[in-house]
Amino acid sequence: MKKRLLAVAVVVAAAIAVGVAASLIGNSVRADEIDIRKAEMGSLESSVSASGKLVPLYEQIVVSPVSTRILEVYCNEGDSVAEGQSLLRLDLQSTETELRRARDEVAMKHNELEKAGLNDKTSLNDLEMKIRVKELSVSHLKAEVANEKRLDSIGSGTGDRIREAELAYSTGLMELEQLRLQLENEKKMKAASMRSMQLESSITARNLQEMERTLEDARVKAPRKGTVTWLNKTIGGSIGAGEKLAIVSDLSHLKIEGQIAESNSGKLSVGATVHARINRNLVDGRISTISAQSENGTVQFVVFLSDDSDKHLRSGLHAELDVVYDTRDNVVRIPNGPYFKGPGQYFLFVKTGDNTLEKRGVILGDSNFDHVEVVSGIQPGEEVVVSDMSRHNDKSSIKIKN
After folding, report:
1. CB within 8 A of 88, min separation 6: which ones?
2. Rounded to two decimals, what is the model's pTM?
3. What is the distance in angstroms between the CA of the first residue and the CA of the last residue of the chain?
4. Boundaries of CATH 2.40.50.100 in the chain?
5. 32: pLDDT strictly greater than 80
6. For the structural domain made of 96-212, what CATH number should be given?
7. Where are the beta strands (DSSP E) in 262-381?
């Protein structure tokens, strides 16, 4: 009987030992499995998360100014090109024919203008000569009137002859005035006609200049020094006027095209600081432009980088953005980590003096890439677990094992 009681006691003791051990194991965590950081006083840049990608700061699209087809391709995507370097050769035969026709039309207009100017000059000179002749005639008739009056005063003339002389003189004056009015009207008419012809000639000349520019653009040259990032290499393919032929980008300078949820777009402002994480690299920049419209629930914006000389930065890389909208000093803060899901109440494990982690209710506020604001529950200098402790949510305290 005593042996049986002893055996039962041993079994019970073993079970209790196992339970205690299991309890101790479940209420402990290895020091190297958790990340413990100190709360501190400091400044906090309140920010909102966004995303984006690196794109060339400058890029230029080359389009075809005419409808044509591609005859030759002189480079490939990824090639570096100098300003003015040929990229493609287009079939420009019809454009060159139109250009020659336009040049002939300009020459014809120029000749017509010269011919009209000579005709006008001749016509006006004839009228001016007639006026001078008429002026001499009127002067003679005036002298005749004076002569007849002198003869009448000495008894050698008659009143009829005086009246005839005066009538001839008055008629001559009227004819002279008519010639002068005709000359003035002819000058105005010919000046208006000349202005009209000059305008037509000027329009024709501008059309020629436009065609020459079009032909020059159709030679498809690199508009700037850079890299060919896209190229239509379909030899023989038809191209419509305005259709894209190539994109030349300056890959030595980059910017970020970002997008943010429409619900957070009110926190964007031109000039706001942006912290960008790109492949573990942190670069800063400022918002330069913000789209006035949303698309698919997001708002687009552009970030100019403070320094884009890092060789690890390349066009097309994804960027995690932290857009700063407020900065405050003397804030209790703890490092950001996987525990943080947004402002609100949390239960975090705080280290006590005897290597024990105590679960405590805290209220967290704004955040950025690096820090989270502690509204209440943690004092500066206290040590807080900032790694994921979700598997210990049912524990009120945990021992730290070395």
Report:
1. 70, 71, 72, 73, 74, 220, 231, 232, 245, 246
2. 0.54
3. 46
4. 60-93+218-248
5. yes
6. 1.10.287.1490
7. 273-278, 281-295, 298-305, 318-335, 344-351, 356-367, 371-376
